[in-house]
Amino acid sequence: MPTPEQFAALMADVSKMDGRAAALVLSAIIDNLLEYVILSRFRRLSKRRRDALFRNPTAPLVSMSAKTHVAYAMGIVGDELRSQLDRMRSIRNTFAHAMLAVSFDDPQIAAECMKLDPRRLIHEGYAYQPETDSPRERFTVVATLAASILMRFINHRADELRYGPNPWRAPSPDKFELRHPRPSQNRG
């Protein structure tokens, strides 16, 4: 999983990419984080067993759709995030399967992107203040919020495994929020 600095650098790289590349890379990040978040709840699996679940062509969790459904069923992802992830996947598929050059400005893609709503993934204390409110910006902001929510869950789970039951409440399965400090190793 990327560190916050690596994630920031990756997002800076994404901002320089053409639309198709940006959509595919951002979706790949989400897809990988969904895998990590699901694995964080599983027992430790060998590489062969992980591949059988996530990597092989007939693996039950090879697709972003399957990972989203399982993360939702496990209570890791809530209704709002699941809805936004499904829409992102649909947009990604349009980019991935287009035979001709497409962009965020294409009517079908733009219409779907404008249905993405960053406000559905942030708490009331935060305000979504778009710079352009373009289809690409919406896709990027929702992807960033979704990645942040998933990374926060993974970090929370790692703390539980490292230190025992976490005294802090679990991250919201739907909303980005400021990260609380990690518990001290000397919790008494």
Write the layout of secondary structure elements.
Blueprint: H1 4-16, H2 19-39, H3 47-54, H4 64-73, H5 79-97, H6 107-115, H7 135-163
Helix pairs in contact: 2-4, 2-5, 2-7, 4-5, 5-6, 5-7, 6-7
Report what the structure shows.
The protein is mostly helical and 188 residues long. It has a single domain, classed as Four Helix Bundle (Hemerythrin (Met), subunit A). Helix content is 58%, strand content 0%. The chain contains seven helices and no strands. Helix 2 crosses helix 5, helix 5 crosses helix 7 (135-163) and helix 6 (107-115) crosses helix 7 (135-163). It is globular.
- Name the helix and strand elements from N-terminus to C-terminus, one letter apiece: HHHHHHH
Q: How helix-rich are the residues, as a percent range?
A: 55-70%
The CATH level-2 architecture is identified as: Up-down Bundle
Largest sheet: none
Low-confidence stretches are 180-188
Beta strands, count = 0
Q: Indicate the CATH class.
A: Mainly Alpha
Strand content: under 5%
Large-scale geometry:
globular
What is the number of independent domains?
A: 1
Mean pLDDT: 87
Distance between the termini: 29 Å
Helix and strand composition category: mainly alpha
In DSSP terms (H or I, runs of 4 or more residues), the helix count works out at 7
Give the C-alpha Rg.
17 Å
Which fold name fills CATH's third level, the topology? Four Helix Bundle (Hemerythrin (Met), subunit A)
